[in-house]
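# step 3/5: fold
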Amino acid sequence: MVIELFNFGGYGHFIWFAFIFTFVNCYVLYLTTSKELYKKEKLFLSEFKQTVPTKIEVVKQRREVKTVLSGSSIF
């Protein structure tokens, strides 16, 4: 019964070949993409890592206290 399930009605050798072909191609594509990404990351870091770092100073916010005049005629 299990053999019949994997046989796919006589078309098993075509279906299993298609599955294997697809998974192998996806794996090769993954490997080449990750290898290319590693190269690009290495190139990016070599170009931009050695620049002079700039120090960013945080400006403290000044709080302005606004007083509301109680006798104001403007609403």
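# step 4/5: annotate
The chain has a mean pLDDT of 81.
# step 5/5: archive (pending)
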